[in-house]
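[job 0412] stage=complex_fold ligand=phosphoenolpyruvate status=START
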Amino acid sequence: MRQPKRSTSAMKLAPQPTASFTLHGAGVSGGIAIGYAHLVSTARLEVAHYDIASDAIEEEISRFDAAISEVRSELIGLQASVSASAPAEVSAFLNVHLMILDDAHLSRRPRELIRSRGCNAEWALTQQMEMLVQQFDEIEDAYLRERKNDIVQVAERVLKAMLRTSHAPASPSHEENVIVVAHDLSPADMILFKQHQFAGFVTDLGGVTSHTAIVARSLNIPAIVGLHHARGLIRENELLIVDGREGVLIVNPDRQVLAEFQLRQSQLDIERRKLKSLRSTPATTLDGIPIELHANIELPQDVNAAIEAGATGIGLFRSEFLFLNRDDLPGEDEQFEAYRKVAEAMDGRPVTIRTLDLGADKTVNGGSRAGPNPALGLRAIRFCLAEPQMFQVQLRAILRASNYGKIRILVPMLAHVHEIDQAMGAIAQAKEQLDDLGLHYDHAINVGGMIEIPAAAMSLGVFVKKLDFLSIGTNDLTQYTLAIDRSDDTVAHLYDPLHPAVLQLIAQTIQVGEKAGRPVAVCGEMAGELAATRLLLGFGLREFSMHPAQLLEIKQQVLRANAAEAQGFARRILRNDDPDKCRRLLARLNS
Ligand code: PEP
Ligand code: MG
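[job 0412] stage=complex_fold status=DONE, emitting structure tokens
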């Protein structure tokens, strides 16, 4: 007999007679969500907690043992199938995972917990995993500390195996009424949440341009990050209001507050529906300048939302998301199919595929080398150049897909000219291999570079000679200019894309690109910020790329803007290095 600890079914949104309180964080995506809290642990899978009757304890322990054996066989099988082109770390990582799996902390201790607490096996394993993660968090050595991720990954495998034999009470059937409350979520976790239809998300950690926040935004549901204590203060099933515009979370609202937010929510819905009528309206400013509004996507299926929003191209396909949440690497054919799907769906409109930007907060199981400062380490093009075989596989897949649409290659995180030369050399090599095989591709494929490191923005003269187009990554450009880790909520208040130094670099990049006849886009989060649209138009930007959910609002802003007038304001803002004055001028431009 198993009894659920709590039930999340039969939900009716009603205020609860418990104390109400408010938490403040950083709003990640617009809109208001009202629903019931569902606490998730550091494990990516949601773990049910229920009691096991004393006569069923041995059976539950056998279920746990069976899952451990199944995962052991899986890992041994994977080890045998690792291809020669996989980075050397993949094999080493599988060894480490086997060792972790067989360690008594994971394979024996949960059995004791099942017996002593009478709880289900998933819960026992998660408790033990969280305890180990906490211990690892306290280790000073950065390399050893990061091994906690391996523990989580092994535990997740076992949890997945147990899912198949789960006796858990039905999970909430009303996902649209559920607000996920987590201490932290990785970009890979967020991608898994794409398969669900939760009402909202809140997390204790994270900054507004962390990749976790970026994926939350692409889910188009209200979310708040950097709440600090939400996970500790909120209880399962408490009623929550998430105001993703203001970054305010109201716990247990009273009847009046609830009614007020329900009204605001329906007003926002009406506005959103009205915006849909702009879908096929060309984005042209009041003074007749045509503007390209492209979409950012993470997975091939996101292309539907881009088309739905009327995007005239894909300005950024973050291809590394194809590599997350798996223990093998996607092969050439799998990648080719993913890229081809997007190219065909866009039907001749440009599709900008960014080569792998792995590293920092996006890590492939076993294939990345975090280093002491991941954001400054072996990330993006640096990682690809260090793993030439893996890079070749991706380049061949992209080139083959270029036969099915207008694909452009975008290289992230360039700082040195020799990195462009090496990337170009790799592309030439991939082309030669396809020629040898007689496979077709676009011989004149455009290759562009992301401008997201100040050094690149300041040595553009050489860059534009070697690249066909530029795309400004304002998220990283801000991070690297201001020396603020974009995923660290403790310094999030200092992260400011409107800092005069960042604005100078953006404006300069647009200007140099224009003079050299190289198209320039902005594909960082700033492109989807209503407050920045006029300013960017004033700098001369003609191509914006953002999440599909932001596109129609930005189009409305473009339709109401006068580019010539914006240019006057933009010049005055650039002449200023006083941030307060800049903000006042920007407020006037937007008023
Ligand atoms: C950026 O840095 O602005 C960007 C678009 O790339 P990412 O957010 O994926 O780092
Ligand atoms: Mg970037």
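The domain at 54-163 is CATH 1.10.274.10 (Enzyme I; Chain A, domain 2).
[job 0412] exit 0
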